[in-house]
């Protein structure tokens, strides 16, 4: 695994957080990830008057991943308004899993962890492929 510049990733996540649209919760979130080809993708949360429609920052990040050329996520960090590292919500761990290299690293509230540690025994595309055989 190449060296990961966590400070650079956190700065990119913080920049994204400032662009969040969170008028209802007032809880701004920014996410950033290193992609397998070395580029960085970002996302911010986008809320909605119909609260359940809210998009987490990770949704925007995964959209940018594909819009900017695809690839897989190597390292990920997510921050809140205070610039504190936060955990991706359960739904977003699932979202990230499908676009992550095996063993993708996350900066978490308890240190650097792998995607498998934060989403053990994940359901994924392989389960569908196996069922189709
Ligand atoms: N939020 C994210 O953007 N990502 C997460 O992983 C956790 C939660 C957002 C959704 C909502 O706009 C706000 O944080 C409060 O839940």
Main sheet summary: 5 strands, mixed
Instruction: Give the end-to-end Cα distance, rounded to a whole number of Å.
Output: 33 Å
Weakly predicted, low-confidence segments:
none
Helical proportion, percent range: 25-40%
Bound molecules: tetrahydrodeoxyuridine
Question: What is the typical, i.e. mean, pLDDT?
Answer: 97
Percent of residues in β-strands: 15-25%
Shape descriptor reads globular
Question: What's the order of the H and E elements?
Answer: HEEHEHEEHH
Radius of gyration: 15 Å
Count the E strands. 5
Structural class: alpha+beta
> What count of helical segments does DSSP give?
5
Strand line-up in the sheet with most strands: 2-1-3-4-5
EC number: 3.5.4.5
Keywords: Hydrolase, Metal-binding, Zinc
Protein name: Cytidine deaminase
InterPro entries: CMP_dCMP_dom, Cyt/Deoxycyt_deaminase, Cyt_deam_tetra, Cytidine_deaminase-like
């Amino acid at each position: 695994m190449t060296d990961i510049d966590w400070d650079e990733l956190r700065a990119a996540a913080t920049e994204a957080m400032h662009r969040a649209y969170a008028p209802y919760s007032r809880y701004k979130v920014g996410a950033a990830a290193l992609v397998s080809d070395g580029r960085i993708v970002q996302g911010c949360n986008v809320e909605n008057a119909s609260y359940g429609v809210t998009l987490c920052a990770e949704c925007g990040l995964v959209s940018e991943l594909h819009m900017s050329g695809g690839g897989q996520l190597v390292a990920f960090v997510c921050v809140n308004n205070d610039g504190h590292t936060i955990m991706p919500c359960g739904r977003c761990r699932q979202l990230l899993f499908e676009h992550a290299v095996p063993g993708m690293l996350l900066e978490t509230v308890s240190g650097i962890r792998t995607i498998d540690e934060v989403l053990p025994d994940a359901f994924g595309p392989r389960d569908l492929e196996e069922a189709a055989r």
